[in-house]
């Protein structure tokens, strides 16, 4: 019969499949923990250096020297502040678009990209958690069917003839549950970690937007401001001198 011909392949295949799913589950846990830890350390180093900068230009230099989710968000924001997000051919249209709205949209888009990177592999864990019990149940059903076929062929009806094959077939269901439960727990744990990271990115994006808003969504260098002050002082002196020279005499 078909069940007898495939029994040597189906049940071991189910068991090995569940073992492989379990290995992938724990490997994904280690990989995601390493990813989250690296991103967290990079964000801490970046924030510490970024908020110690004197102005937006110094902050942009800090961004260029760091990597991580928050640095990528700030890099996308500085592209809007400096006007690099618009192609040179569209410079005329750029003046018709509010820079604050562009900055807000770009920050949200970059956060969404970073969130998709943090979500990588979570769908696999969710699939393992939902399908592993059914894979194990399939192995159990096949094993019981094989046991019943064997009992029908031999005619043995004793407890030993039934309990042994059925108990062996239930191993697949137990293994499926053993794979599904950790997969679901790991999935929930990683989803919470991911949401916490997204909340931190949202907080940083709001602070970055407020900082750019205070500067009028324009990047000014400290040296440029000093030159403006010096130029303004020279103009005032020249104006005073010109007024003194042209003053009428009595």
From TrEMBL:
**Intracellular or extracellular location(s):** Cell membrane; Membrane
- Where primarily located? membrane
Keyword Membrane assigned: yes
Please give one Pfam family short name. Answer: MotA_ExbB
Q: GO cellular component terms? A: plasma membrane
Origin organism is Salinisphaera japonica YTM-1
Domain MotA/TolQ/ExbB proton channel, by residue range, is 95-202
Membrane topology of the entry: Multi-pass membrane protein
Q: Any idea what this protein is called?
A: Biopolymer transporter ExbB
Family, similarity comment: Belongs to the exbB/tolQ family.
